[in-house]
Please model this.
Amino acid sequence: MRSPTLARLYLQCDHDEDIENWSDNRIWDELHKRLGGARKLEESKMLQKGITPMRSFVVEPMQYGRLFLAGDSAHIVPPTGAKGMNLAFADVMMLSRAVTTFYKSKRDDLLKNYSATCLRRVWYAQRFSWWMTQIMHRFPNESAFDRRRQHSDLDYLTSSKAAATSLAEQYVGLPLN
Model:
């Protein structure tokens, strides 16, 4: 939810589909069908629509000389895991600590370790986003085995307190070091 009256929702479709084939009515019909009444939808004007590729990307190291990368310039996660903004904030927090320490205390250890420190969190988030994408989306050439595995993962999540706790921890985010 962006606000009590504004939300961003995603529908899965083929990556090579043309957005012109997705009228507002078609999108509303699909949202109602796919959510199956799990959430009340009040139809209104769509402000934006597009085909968003579900992709991942990580730059290693997140530094080149005195150039430090943060956020989407260093890593991209699919929206399924909802980690992009949190990772960017964590990068900036770590970089600001490192720069402050460098100028206040003349120590460069945090700058030297910036990439390794951030990449540990980034790879956890990549793994989580990949896992959520695997559970929540269908893929071309998917087998009956793959669908059964998805159902098993969802069943495990809804029946295991440990799995639910792990999901909550990963979804909310890891503590900053």
